[in-house]
Design goal:
- The protein has helices at 16-46, 51-60, 63-96, 99-104, 113-126, 140-150.
- The longest helix is centred in the middle third of the chain and has 34 residues, at 63-96.
- It is built from 6 helices and no strands.
- With 154 residues, the protein is mostly helical.
- The protein has 2 domains: 16-104; 106-154, no CATH class.
- Helix 1 (16-46) runs antiparallel to helix 2 (51-60) and helix 1 (16-46) runs antiparallel to helix 3.
Length: 154
């Protein structure tokens, strides 16, 4: 009599793989809704003497509730930022060996000389004065998006 083998679902080798999709969603919520929530509640608390702040805080459940929401949003943003720094440290040790290679290396989103040549080539291509440039890992506009997020443009 032949044995029937039951196919078992294998676990992923790295349990962190299961957390990765969640870590992709939390920062987007945290860094889009978190600051907005913190700003709404923080401004309500800062300008508590105005009529609009009284109305808005009443919608949130009062000034005490607005303060709790404000601190919760701040804790969420701080936690995600800390997790990001921990991931960067791990990636630096595992893949790069040096911070300079991580921040300014080939896979970095920090704009470099190659991005400048691609930017110029793209503008020439756009107006019909040149060929379309062969982009590296990041196109010029994707790496330039990083600047406002990091505070470099201030």
């Amino acid at each position: 009599m032949a044995e029937i083998k039951v196919a078992r679902k294998k676990r992923p080798a790295n349990p962190g793989i299961m957390v990765a999709p969640l870590l992709a969603v939390i920062p987007s919520i945290s860094f889009t809704e978190g600051p907005a929530r913190a700003a709404r509640t923080g401004l309500t608390l800062k300008f508590s003497y105005t009529k609009w702040a009284e109305v808005f805080s009443h919608l949130l459940g009062g000034f005490e509730s607005a303060g709790c929401i404000h601190r919760g949003a701040a804790c969420l943003m701080f936690g995600v930022f800390t997790k990001h720094l921990v991931d960067l440290c791990r990636m630096e040790k595992r893949d790069y060996g040096r911070w300079r290679a991580l921040v300014l290396g080939a896979g970095s989103m920090v704009p470099n000389r190659r991005d400048l040549t691609e930017l110029i080539g793209t503008r020439k291509w756009f107006v019909g004065r040149g060929e379309r440039p062969a982009y590296e890992r990041w196109t010029d506009w994707r790496s330039l998006i990083l600047l406002p997020c990091s505070g470099v443009s201030r």
